[in-house]
Amino acid sequence: MVDYWLTALGLMLVLEGIMPFLFPSSWRDTLRKASQFHDGQARFIGLTLMLSGLLLIYWIK
Asked: Which positions are tagged coiled coil (predicted)?
């Protein structure tokens, strides 16, 4: 089970690193814009991402 968690963590780090590696200026601009979201907007985006991830995991299994 630990192998799955470490594999998932490694994959997440690879995916998170693609944008700053390939498009550093666009990534920086996106982070600047995202930092200006209100708390409610950021929470909605976080909730949407978490639910999407759970649905993807459910669909795979």
From this structure: none
